[in-house]
């Protein structure tokens, strides 16, 4: 079973072909005035996957250039940069109104046996021991600002369980570290690229907000202008996005109006399945004149 929101996401990731290595994707309504960055990342990822066979994606690096218009389809143009013996490289540009809004490079690799090690998963409560989003709303409904409440009440394709939900009602500065469990709101088909695409979508959720913990702020605050500037993902091991994944996030630095944020994504069995890095804009809102 899938939620309606997840069905919509899966449909938007099934891009319409426009010609050779050219595709079109539609937006999803998520309550923002611009397209959610995770959607552009995931659609760009699905576009490059359409041009590669026999190899799995292991990394992608993207730059957000302009805010996307949620009322306009997005055109994706893929450039087949190289097909080597072990690796394939692709570049994709997302356009609206004739202008580039996002660009991304992605690399694909044949599976190889080799050395293995990984960092240990943080010790956090398992998702079954954490409150659901509905339970959080019931618990904090009178304490949460209207814009945060409306966001959490909207049906979404990704379910979250926060290890520290108090951060959304507290203005106290704290160490910029947070842990969030996530999974799709329903079972996905056994298509590896679709599970990777869903992870791409979810990887842009809560990550930028990590940096604002150090300042007692969140991306919902009216005195903060947040925006993702770039985004990188490395896929390490197979996983399912419809089972719980732990997103361990931290922000080592913020300066010059920008923050640097990192994420490690673990399966519930403790396997490190992906790593994420992002620089974001956390500009102070200018006073109205």
Q: Top keywords for this entry?
A:
single chain; 289 residues; alpha+beta; Porin; 13-stranded antiparallel β-sheet; 37% strand
Question: What would your notes on this structure say?
Answer:
The protein has 289 residues and is of the alpha+beta class. The protein has one domain: Porin, CATH 2.40.160.210. Helices cover 19% and strands 37% of the residues. It has six helices and 13 strands. Strands 1, 2, 3, 4, 5, 6, 7, 8, 9, 10, 11, 12 and 13 form a 13-stranded antiparallel sheet that branches. Strand 4 and strand 5 form a beta hairpin. The protein is globular and about 55 Å long. The mean pLDDT is 92.
CATH class: Mainly Beta
CATH superfamily label: Acyl-CoA thioesterase, double hotdog domain
Q: What is the element string, with H for helices and E for strands? A: HEEHEEEEHHEEHHEEEEE
> What is the third-level CATH name, the topology?
Porin
